[in-house]
Amino acid sequence: MLRWFLRPLDRYVMAEWTKIFLGTSLGFPLIVTIFDLTDNLDKYLNRALPTKAIALSYVYWFPESMLLVLPAAVLFATVFSIGAFSRHSELTAAKASGISFHRFTLPIIVGAVAASAVALGLSEFVPQANKRRSELLQERKYTTGNERYNFAFAAERGRVYRATMLNVERGYLEGLEIERKGLETDSTYPTWILSANNAMFTPAKGWTVKQGAFHVVPARGRNIAISFDSLRDRSMQESPRDLMASPKAPADMGYEDLGRFIEALERSGSDVNALRVERALKIAVPITCVIIAFFGMPLATSNQRGGAAYGIGLSLGTTIVFLIMIQLTKAVGGRGVITPEMAAWVPNVVFGLIGLIMLSRVRT
Questions:
Q1: pTM beyond cutoff 0.90
Q2: Using CA atoms, how far apart are residues 343 and 341, in angstroms rounded to an integer?
Q3: 176 pLDDT band (50/70/90 cuts)?
Q4: 314 pLDDT more than 60
Q5: pLDDT score of 1
Q6: 258-269: buried (b, 16+ CB within 10 Å) or exposed (e) per residue?
Q7: 52: exposed, middle or buried (C-beta count within 10 Å: 0-12, 13-18, 19+)?
Q8: How far is the C-alpha of 148 from the C-alpha of 171, rounded, in Å?
Q9: Got the DSSP string for 228-266?
Q10: Beta strands in the chain (DSSP E)
Q11: Which of these, 166, 7, 215, lies nearest to 97 by C-alpha position?
């Protein structure tokens, strides 16, 4: 099977596609990085950040930039490579040799699948990279304001904090609830919920939680509830100023972390449809790399003499339409008109069906 796939023609098609794909997926993030650095350099220098920290922060930002551009990179590589094969009559020669269009473009599909796998891996790595970048740029240190009301905060180790009021100057939390999601398959790691009237912070002792109850909710067996007058939560390592940081964006949470955050907000009665759409997009967007390849292959054969300008216009136009459709379906799913999961997958389904129909009409 491997020898059958690694024929000289397959290697040639894969090499041509890969050159364009790598140039796009690495080049676009580099351009965005230059623009962002130009806009924010004064701000970073005013914070007296070391040059090494600024440079390293953009290294950690690169995976997120690359993740955003991967579907477009697959489309650009597909349109330009197949367009070049058509203009240079290489596709015609392959057909004359008994190689169908579908077989000829098989290496491109393999490349798109590999791009989807990379995108899935990046989607889980990006939150950790963004956290490290925030630390390097000291974003939390420069948050403004001293009070915050009715908020939820996604902490480390699967913990979610909810509070009705935070006062940074006093180091005071009111109406605190802490939830740690457990594992249904592990009875030694149960879900627990801590609720308290208030909590006080001191730099020496950390957070002292007062007048509340601790509920253990195991996967099997009876629930356990323990009332307390006060306790010290050593795992709550965030300072009051840390809790003033803006809520984590869905892009800053992995799939499982975002799921735990959604479940915690659901139990508090919050509307989580928009977050559910974002969670589903963490799977749908990487799969877009394969869908967009099926869509781009027949488009690339529609004008063999269009040249580079045609390829650029076609790729950009398709990308813009796809992004607009994602934004529209996110809005529809966020309002509950359709299920959030369906909203996330609608663009893929639409483009996939259109791509398969056009692909079936290509002369093979």
A1: no
A2: 5
A3: very high
A4: yes
A5: 46
A6: bbbbbebbeeee
A7: exposed
A8: 12
A9: EEEEEETT----HHHHTSPPPPGGGS-HHHHHHHHHHHH
A10: 147-154, 159-167, 172-180, 191-202, 206-217, 224-233
A11: 7
Beta-carbon contacts of residue 24 (< 8 Å; ≥ 6 apart): 69, 72, 73, 76, 77
Closest CA to 348 of 295, 277, 270, 276: 295
* Burial class of residue 234 in the structure, from the number of CB atoms within 10 Å of its CB (0-12 exposed, 13-18 middle, 19+ buried): exposed
pLDDT more than 90, % of the chain? 21
List, for residues 4-61, the tens digit of each pLDDT value. 556 788 888 999 999 999 999 999 889 988 998 888 888 888 888 888 988 999 999 9
- pLDDT of 227 > 60? The answer is yes
Cα–Cα dist 237/42, whole Å: 31
Q: Is the dihedral of CA 110, 115, 119, 121 positive or negative?
A: positive
Rounded alpha-carbon distances, angstroms, from residue 39 to 35, 42, 66, 296? 6, 8, 20, 34
Those residues whose C-beta lies under 8 Å from the C-beta of residue 284, and which sit 6 or more positions away, are 344, 345, 347, 348
Q: Quick one: tokens of 231?
A: 């306790």
Contact 269, 48 (CB under 8 A): no
Render pLDDT for 126-147 as a digit per residue (tens, 0 to 9): 888 888 888 888 776 655 568 8
Q: Which residue has the tokens 């080049």?
A: 27
DSSP 126-161: HHHHHHHHHHHTTTGGG---SEEEEEEEE-STTEEE
CA-wise closest residue to 319 among 23, 101, 28, 111: 28
Within 13 Å and on the Cβ side, how many CA atoms surround 135? 7
Is there a contact between 91 and 31 (Cβ–Cβ < 8 Å)? no
Bridge partners of 207, per DSSP, are 201, 233
Phi, psi of 199 (to 5 degrees): -150, 145
At residue 229, the pLDDT reads 92
Average pLDDT, the chain: 84
